[in-house]
Amino acid sequence: MSEIHPLSDVKSKNIGKNTRVWQYSVIFENAVIGDDCNICAHTLIESDVVIGDRVTVKSGVFIWDGARIEDDVFIGPNVTFTNDSMPRSKVYPDTFEAIYICKGASIGANATLLPGIRVGAYSMIGAGAVVTRDVPDYAVIIGNPGKISRYLKNES
After folding, report:
1. pTM of the full predicted structure?
2. What are the structural domains of the chain?
3. Which of 40, 103, 111, 113 has a 20 to 30 A CA-CA distance from 134?
């Protein structure tokens, strides 16, 4: 059974077992969140978002429509997801540019992910990095714009 804090606003019925949702979190109606996740305080998850199992979403993260997050991902505090490369007030695209976060990836605090990118399996995004293009599996990304600093050993 999931544990949902009474001061959160969870409309979705698609919350996995043993998932915890903390106070002041907002989860829209059709969002899908897997088992054993930890959704920390002050987060927002829109309807067209799918989150796998054993994912941690730290405080201050807003996950917009189109995001797909696989199992065992860590998303640090205040990570910024984007889904529209040409945003305008009250002008909505027909479809949003999806962000894919692959299995076991780790995204450091205050990183920014631009629309339409894929973050590879078991990669690590450093704190404050701005990710402007796809990230290969096992890559470590740092800086603005984000660049590969090295590769991790195969940890899977």
Report:
1. 0.95
2. 1-156 (2.160.10.10)
3. 40
- The β-bridge relationship of strands 68-69 and 50-51 is parallel
Q: Which neighbouring-strand residues pair with 88?
A: 91
pLDDT single digits (tens) 4-30: 999 999 999 999 999 999 999 999 999
Q: Over the range 106-145, which residues count as b (16 or more CB within 10 Å of their CB) and which as e? A: bbbbbbbbbbbbbbbbbbbbbeebbbeeebebbbbbbeee
Q: Which two tokens stand for residue 71?
A: 């199992």
| Token duo for residue 21 | 């949702």
Among 109, 120, 45, 51, smallest CA distance to 77 is for 109
CA–CA dist 9, 151 (Å, integer): 39
